[in-house]
Fold:
Amino acid sequence: MAKCLYAFHEAGIAVRLAAGQSGVKVKTGICADVDVTFCTTARVEDMEHVLAGVRATIRDEYEYFDPDITVELTKAEPCAMAAGEKETEELVEFIHLLPFGVINRFLPLAGPDGVTGLPSYSANIGRFRVEDGRAIIQYAGRSPFESYLDETRYTVDLLSRKLGLTVTGGNDYYGYRYLKESPLRDTLDRVFLAQYGYPIKHMAAHGGNECGAFKHMHPDMDIVTSGAIYAKHHTPEEYLDLESFDRCIRLLKSLVEAL
Structure:
């Protein structure tokens, strides 16, 4: 959405935002689809010419992550109300300037895909909607470092003040860092090997769970996480492998007994 509207802005095509709504989230916390309605006096041919370049860019950027992503331009019913061109331009500039994607990485660590450089700081727009004449953006920063989360707040506050926007709410969702030395992880290694007959495979993930809140309250806490097989999380198709859940319970009991 932001790429398209900003491309119009750069091409001198004025638009006035009338409505917008993001759909469900995919597993990364990013919206799976966004519908935006706007008013303009520009010709369809001119807008399609601009979108052709945007589509090519998106195709390259999302080749491996989301190769089926599409951008469509359709004619809508006349708008009963729309924002002014200046207000729309300011909103588009704000969204365009928000940090997006992976910003920093743990170079020594590999992620679930085996690629070295697990993300240590990322950010994205989680949801977007137009409601009661206001554009509402839910923005999320993710990091096991509280300093990076503070940086997210500073960036959003600064941009909002410059453009006359309002920041409301906000929830801290703390992460926890990988520890080189972890007695609890060593114990889990031994328990897993005894139960399954082969060594456990460690995996670092740039996701979130409640362990970050525990770590925030007790900085010296040693933490490991393990879980059942699941897929399509954060979507209506999310599911859990119940047999693997039973195996996890047995492993957890053995770990508690070994402590």
Notes: The chain has a mean pLDDT of 84. Strands lie at 16-22, 34-39, 101-110, 116-131, 134-142, 230-231, 239-240.
